[in-house]
Structure formats: C-alpha cells, structure tokens
Design brief:
Two copies of one chain form a homodimer.
Chain A (H helix, E strand, L loop, with lengths): L4 E2 L9 E3 L22 H4 L5 H8 L4 E3 L2 H7 L7 E3 L1 H7 L4 E6 L10 H13 L4 E6 L3 H12 L3 E7 H6 L1 H9 L3 E5 L5 H9 L7 H14 L3 E3 L6 H21 L5 E5 L4 H15 L9 E7 L4 H4 L1 E6 L8 E6 L21 H8 L4 E5 L1 H15 L5 H20 L4 E6 L7 H8 L10 H9 L6
Parallel strand pairs in A: 5-15, 6-7, 6-9, 7-8, 10-11, 10-15, 11-14
Antiparallel strand pairs in A: 1-4, 2-3, 4-5, 12-13
Helix pairs in contact in A: 2-11, 3-5, 4-15, 5-6, 6-8, 9-10, 11-12, 15-16
C-alpha cells in the first residue's frame, strides 16, 4: 500500500537553518529608529541574547542548528509530509496536493520551531527567565513548552479577554509550568498605568508586549521572546521547508506551488524560502516555482498595504522596519485566525514581495472555514483557522488545475490543528461568522501617522 | 542522532488483527440471557452487521483487515512508538520507557481503530446510518470521523450534561458531519419517557445507549456501534500491539512489561494481547512478560469486582457476559477519566485475569494527574486522564527498577491526548480534585441484584 505520509527519521532533521537574506536580490533594508538613524545590536541586547541578535543581523546562508535543539525537535520532528489523496478525490482534481503537518508538535502548531532555539540560546547566555505576550495562546504555549525543556522560568502576559475566554490554552501553558498573567497586570508600570485609567481594560497585544518587554528590559536574568516577524524567527521556521524538500526527494517530486498562511510571515517564509533558495541557486526544478502568501481580506498587509518603514509592534516601541504595512495602530476586525491579525509582514517576506519574487492573495473568512471543513471531512485533521487560509488557496489552485487539466504538485503549510479553536467552528456552523471588507479609511488614517524615515 | 520515535511506513500497517480467543486456556464462556439460555447471533443482527457478529463469535487467531480500512488507517497509522528518554532521565531510572502514541489519530485517541472497521462493515452490509451513545465524546467523535470516511450518516446521543459542558467534543463530531443530540432526547420512546418523568433529566450513558439501540433496532437502514468491551472491538484494537511488535523488532528490543489503562478493556487488550499471543506461542522473549491493566481506585472492577455473569450495559438490555464486574447499575464517582468509569471489564480481559495470565492495579486520581503533568513536562505531550493511569503505573515500575537496578523495557499505551480535557487539569492545579475510595457497600448492593446464571 502506497504511503500517503512521507516520513523522515530523527537523523534526517536538518543540521542547518536556511537564511534567505543571503539570496536576496539586494541587501535587506536596515531597521531604523524614528529619527532615521540605524538601530544597533546593542539596543537589542537588553532583551535578546547575543546569538539571537547575531542571527537577526546575519547574511550567512546556512546557520547551524545546535545539537540540543535538534534533540528536543525529535520529540515530534521531522513532521510528516502528507499527500491529501482523499481531498484530491473529493475535488476531482488532477493536481497532487501535499501538506506539511506542523500540528504534530505538543503545542499543536509550528511555533515551537522557534520557541525551542530561542529558549536554548537564552539558557546558553545564562538567562533564567523568559517573558512573552500571547493573544490566542499559540506562541505562549510554545514558549511555555520550550522553557520547560531548558529549565527556564516563563512568564506570559496573556491579553485579558483571551485569558478569560480561552482558559484551555492558558491551562496548557500552566501544565508546562509557565506563569500566566492576565494583561494588563499589576506586575508592571505599563500594566498599572492602564489599570489606573480603566480597571476593566480588556487588554490588547500591544499592552501585553509592553508588559513583557518592560519586565525583560528591567531584569538582568530575564529576556523577551517574539514568535514571528523577526528575521531569526523566519530562519528557525525554515526547518519546515528544508524537511519538505527531503521528503519530496524521497518520492521524486518537486512542488510547482508552495502556499502558506501569512500573518507576521514566519510560517510562510518557513515553508517557502528553502524552495526559493533552490530557485535562486538556479535549480531547474524550481524554475517555475510559485510561492503564494495567503492573508485575510480583513488584514491584507501584502495585497493592500504600503511598503514603507513602520514599527514592528502596535505600540511603537520597536525599531522601524521596512515592510508592507497597514499601519502599526490599525486594529483588524476580530476574525478567528488570530495569528493573521498582524498589521505588517516580515521584512524578508515584504522585500521578496516587492521584488515580485513571491505572490500574495487575500481570502475572506467564511471561505476559509468552508475549506477547513471540507479538509477535515476528507483528511480527518481539524485545522486551525490560520491553516484554513492555506487550505482555501490550495483548493482554489487545485480547482484551477481541474479546469486546465494540469497535474500540478501543490504544497501547503498546515500550520496547526484546531483543537483549541472549536468555538470558531461553532460560530461558523451557527452562521454567525461574517466576512470583513478591507477597511480603506482606517488603514489610510493609520498610515498617515507614520514618521517618514528611510 | 538516535531516533526516539520508531516509525513504520503505511505498507507496514498490519494486514490481520490478532484474536486472543484462539489462545485462551479454555473456551470463552458464552453470553447468556437472564434466563440462562445462550444469546444467539440472530439476536444481535437487529443492530450489528453480519461481519461484526462473526468476528464477535470468532475463535480464529487472525482476522483479515480489509484493504479499504487500511487505506483510512494510513491517514495517521502506523502510530509512533516513542522512547520516553527525557522522562527516563527525569526519573533517573535504568529502565527503558516506551509509549505507543495513539493520540495522533484525528479524533485524538485509539478509538478510531475500531470505529473505522465498524463503519466499513456496516457500509458493506448496505447500512446507511449508524447510531451510538457518547459521554465525554471520545467514542462519538471517532464514529463521526469513521462515518464520514465511508459516507454513512451518524447520529450520536450525547449525555445531556456532557453535551452542555463539553461543547468542543460535540463540535468536533459536527465538523465531521454527525448529528449530535442531547440525551434524553425527544427522538426516541426511551428519551420521551425519561423527559416526561423529569424534563431536566441530565442524562446518563445508560439512557443514551437505550436511545441509540432503540433507533438502530427500529430501522432497517440503521445499525448501532459500541466502542469497547465486546470481542470485536478488542480484536480491532490489537493493531496497537501488532504495530508495537514490529517497532520493537526494528530496534532489537522486546518489552518486559506492557501497561495500559483499563476501562472496558479494549485499549489494554489492544496493546497487550499480541504480546501475550507470543507468550502463548512459546516465544522465548515473552517468557517473563507481565501485562498490567491499570484501573481507577474509584472503579476497580478487576481488583475488587466479582467474576460473574452481568449485563454489558448499565440498563440491562444486552446479553449477560462472564466478567469481572462491580454490578451494572453501580455508578462510579465522577472522576475525570470518563473512559474508565465502566462497571466491568471485557470478557477476554476478565478470563485472562481470572486465569492469572495478566495483572491489574488500581491507582487513585490525584496520583494519575501528578504522573500526567510530569510526563507533559518531560515529553511535551499533554495526556488524556485515562492515559495518565498508564503513565502512573509505568512511572511506578520505572522507579522500582531504579531501586532494584534492573534495566527493564517498559511499554505503555498512551491512548490519547488531553486537548479536550484541559478542564480536568484546571481542577487538578486548583487543588479541587479528590481521590475516591472503593465504595464497598454500593458495589455489594449492585452485585446482590444480579440474576444468577451460568
């Protein structure tokens, strides 16, 4: 019987991450401060360990994955590459549909791919404790897991409304030994300030980031960690595409299309960049490769945003980075794919998009859930709302193949399972989910406020 | 780097189930009606298809797994055998700890191993629709998944209190296309009768079984399916142990101990019986094999029950089977391992226990959660409360090895993940879970009421 799951052994876990910065058509635009001067590594050292800062700035093509990190990865990696044979049959498409299934990690998503090395490098630097923020909890649970694996204390500032509405993700973090606080909290200056203004403040990612950064900056034994957007996170996620390449080699295939959801950009870059690296190296098989980033119509940073310098965070604390953005204080509609509600896209993804080397498409919420349910009924796995975006685009491409008769090989990133998102399926089945248009005026207002630098 | 996960390819999925009925020291005691006459296959045909009835009665050692069933299995099977290296290190034990991880199925447990063939055989028999009952929802979600895979309608009677308190498992079933009704419902005579007596009736597994059986018995196109206890379910679950044997062969090891949680008995039988089959066949490696069924102290059917004829269900509808039982109308304490709250143990498990060929141990609730949290913090995976029972016993045996210095090979069945059970971890962390003693008098009252047959 033919395998639909292409598996690798632990010794096949990649030994190096791929860094697409080495293969960009022009050097990455440097992060700048609001006054136009370049941000320096020293400014980052209050909250990041040296190895992470070095990776963030690196233009080396290959970065070694530490052995201890690979030893943790083998708890669930290599993740399977799966042929979605039943979905192909349901669609009646001549296309071959494959997905890389990242939901096999204990935290249920691709996020531990970066959380584990971040915890490792911090422990190596003598750090005892990590702080981070989390909304829906995918990143928070990944850092909780990773911190436990390397003996670090973990403090997570969880947006208060999520803390109250999503107790199960919070419990997951606590099961792995992390301390979780509803943000705004009384533990930081920032939190106390917001609570003084409004004791009922429901919190926001911006406030939670500020609390986590404040604690990390103020304590020598404590650092901060971030789950997407930054270069080192995108590098860490390249393990997804590197494994997928080995898996395609095993069956003698190569994808024509690589598709992934795109919020901050690490799950998209993670799966697509290693294939784009082949293309940059002149690999014949990659000559016609198309990479498609899928974003929500309600938060379409690539397809509708502006390519300009903006802050990485909602509050304007970070250096400014050149990226496609809707404006850092733009607040996207409350779609269920919380991981895609980011105002911009990583510098690396943005520069490639600007150079015309990757594509982007925006899809409306209801169509993503429709695709997710069709996927679940064919392949069994119930996908996360973020992953449903990639499934939607993959199904659309497979149906286009049905029209044209082309037997394309389509790879998409199934970034996680939906076990902690069943309430969004509840709302979908109840007919109470809606689509959201691109809010032109709100975005223009937000963009108009940006300092002009670069 | 050494693999901690021992993987198999799809073509290594076993082609036959193992049936320990062929290797029992004496023939299985026949099911009897309350008047002492044997139950006949015809009496089962109102609710089961012929192939299932044949399996239920079979004494053949090997039963062929249909190709279409194996094709569904390859969506997640073979499941990994995992060396719990980090847990070994945390315990400081010379033992080698392995677990077979059944939580990789889309439904998150071992239950689809039987749901899939049951759906297949029913479709082959021209059945259009399956009914079943579910409490916490593990079996219901497995039948929903399996029904979807074979194009069957699925109707699930879910105990009303669970329907209301566990919406996410219900949503999982609905995502796979099943209809889920709170039981007692207005759809059946039984349901209407209970509702007439008390419109606020919170439901029970006994009532839900009655509703599902009533609907199946009354419609020619509808059958009923059961998720544990019966011989055919235990046979189907043998795929767990059969795969594990292949996986141990790959690394040149053989277990000294096989440990599994034991409710109805299918997850225990599923992993242990293929190894006991080796022992029965005179395999030298299995000479000293010990198989340990782990049950909750609050529902200790093997360690404290009586070996006698009792009904399989709480309401007394089924034929009587010879088994270790606490009495079919004994209501166990509300522990979180809902799958272990069964009054008896399958005939096969019971007969082997009575013959002294397997062991049993009862563990208290708090100790199981303590073990589950230690496991999660070592191996990442958050286990289901049922699985925590096996982990507890495996850790205790590993600590005994530490005392004696014996490097035993211990295999346990990690029957599922705890993603839908996080509220039980919440109560554990909050200190509001309790241990329950064995309720001697309630059991004696329940046993005293049994008709004496056999």
């Amino acid at each position: 019987m033919e395998s639909t799951r292409i598996l690798l052994e632990a010794h096949e876990i990649p030994t190096h991450w791929y860094n697409i910065a080495a293969d960009l058509p022009s050097p990455l635009a440097p992060p700048l401060l609001p006054d136009g001067t370049p941000a320096t590594p020293e400014q980052l050292s209050a909250i990041f360990p040296p190895a992470i800062i070095e990776q963030e700035m690196s233009a080396e093509r290959w970065l070694e994955i530490p052995q201890e990190v690979r030893e943790i990865f083998r708890l669930w990696r290599p993740s399977p590459l799966v042929r979605a044979l039943r979905l192909e049959q349901a669609l009646g498409t001549p296309a071959k549909l494959f997905f890389k299934y990242e939901g096999v990690s204990p935290a249920g998503s691709h996020k531990p791919n970066s959380a584990v090395p971040q915890a490792y490098y911090n422990r190596e630097a003598g750090i005892k404790r990590l702080t981070t923020e989390t909304g829906a909890g995918q990143w928070g649970s990944s850092i909780a897991l990773a911190g436990q694996m390397f003996g670090l204390e973990v403090r997570i500032y969880m947006v208060k409304v999520s803390y109250e509405q999503k107790p199960y993700r919070r419990l997951m973090m606590q099961t792995w030994g992390a301390e979780v606080f509803a943000s705004p909290s009384k533990l930081t200056e920032t939190g106390r300030k917001w609570l003084a203004e409004d004791p009922e403040n429901p919190g926001s990612l911006g406030i939670a980031i500020s609390e986590a950064v404040e604690e990390a900056a103020g304590r020598a034994d404590t650092n901060y960690s971030l789950g997407s957007v930054l270069n080192h996170v995108v590098q860490h996620q390249s393990i997804i595409g590197l494994e997928a390449k080995k898996q395609f080699d095993k069956i003698g295939l190569y994808p024509d299309l690589v598709i992934a959801p795109c919020g901050g950009g690490s799950s998209f870059g993670g799966i697509a960049f290693p294939f784009l690296g082949d293309k940059a190296a002149g690999d014949k098989r990659a000559e016609k490769l198309r990479a498609i980033a899928v974003e929500p119509t309600s938060c379409p940073s690539l397809t509708k945003g502006r390519y300009t310098y903006d802050f990485g965070d909602a509050s304007g604390f970070t250096p400014m980075m050149k990226m496609y953005t809707l404006g850092h204080d733009f607040v996207p509609a409350g779609i269920h794919a919380g991981g895609l509600r980011y105002h911009g896209a990583s510098q690396l993804v943005s520069q490639l998009y600007h150079a015309g080397l990757i594509e982007a498409v925006a899809v409306p919420q209801l169509a993503t859930f429709e695709a997710g349910v069709q996927f679940a009924r064919s392949e069994g796995i119930i996908p996360a709302p973020e992953s449903c975006h990639a499934i939607r685009a993959a199904i659309d491409e497979a149906l286009e193949c049905k029209r044209t008769g082309e037997p394309k090989v389509i790879l998409f990133n199934l970034t996680g399972h939906g076990h902690f998102d069943m309430s969004s399926f509840e709302r979908y089945f109840a007919g109470s989910l809606e689509d959201f248009d691109y809010p032109v005026e709100a975005v223009e207002r937000s963009l108009a406020k940006l300092p002009v630098v670069g």
